[in-house]
Write a structure and sequence with these properties.
Blueprint (H helix, E strand, L loop, with lengths): L3 E9 L4 E15 L20 E16 L10 E13 L2 E2 L8 E2 H4 L11 E3 L5 E3 L4 E14 L4 E12 L15 H6 L6 H7 L18 E11 L3
Antiparallel strand pairs: 1-2, 2-3, 3-4, 4-9, 5-6, 7-8, 9-10, 10-11
Length: about 230
């Protein structure tokens, strides 16, 4: 769990409908390694591959929100649902054992992207496709509960999930592990570090880095303090 923050600017078009601009900033990450002896592969991943990542996400969204009930009293709790569209930036990074530096996984091409001049990636059936981008789009949606603290200040508890259209938020897709010599050749400044980032578990080149081709997604809880300008 990591903290996130952002700003909101909204317009109450009617008693039920509200339209807003939202900006969020967050840090997400994950690792195949268990965090402690009780965490025995609870995520269903293969610890042998030893992959990990961390990425900063910055997004901007336009949201339409519908209040399911009315504000009757200051103490009223008003539930709502919302959905919209957003653009977001992400750039997954990782470290290698014994090295405190964070390396840009997209630039290294841990799935083989740099073997094709950074534009294409080798798929599991031998075909090529475009590598993932840093700026992409998604569909945020969720639900919230609002309550007035004063005449002009509203406190909101909400959950937002962002449906995205890439499997590379964590830099891990169904591509094959790249050849060690080739990944070192296209990353001459990193050499064996590039190999460790792409294949830290020393898996065979015929294996897939992931066996799920479902798209990734990200979500977050939020407390929002809204001040009415007028």
């Amino acid at each position: 769990m990591k903290p996130n923050g952002g700003i909101r600017l909204g317009y109450q078009a009617s008693e039920n409908w509200r339209f807003s601009f939202r900006n969020s900033y967050m840090l997400i990450g994950g690792s195949d390694n268990p965090q402690n002896e009780k965490n025995n592969n609870v995520r269903g991943t293969s610890f042998e591959r030893n992959l990990s990542f961390r990425t900063t996400i910055m997004d901007a969204a336009l949201i339409a929100e519908y209040n399911l009930t009315r504000f009757k009293l200051k103490s009223s709790f008003v539930p709502s649902i919302f959905a919209g569209a957003n653009v977001y930036y992400s750039n997954p990074r990782a470290r290698v054992a014994g090295d405190g530096e964070w390396y840009d996984l997209r630039a290294v091409g841990t799935g083989g992207q740099t073997l094709y001049n950074g534009d294409y990636i080798l798929d599991r059936d031998g075909s090529t496709r475009l590598a993932y981008k840093k700026i992409m789009y998604g569909i945020p949606y969720g639900a919230s509960v609002k309550r007035h603290l004063t005449q002009k200040v509203i406190l909101t508890l909400s959950y937002t999930y962002n449906k995205i259209f890439t499997d590379y938020l964590d830099a891990v897709g169904t591509d094959l592990y790249p050849d060690s010599e080739l990944i070192k050749y296209v990353n001459p400044d990193l050499g064996p570090v590039a190999v460790s980032l792409a294949n830290p578990g020393n898996q065979p080149n015929t294996a897939q880095r992931s066996y799920s081709d479902n798209n990734d997604g990200y979500g977050y809880w939020g407390f929002t303090f809204t001040f009415k300008i007028y």
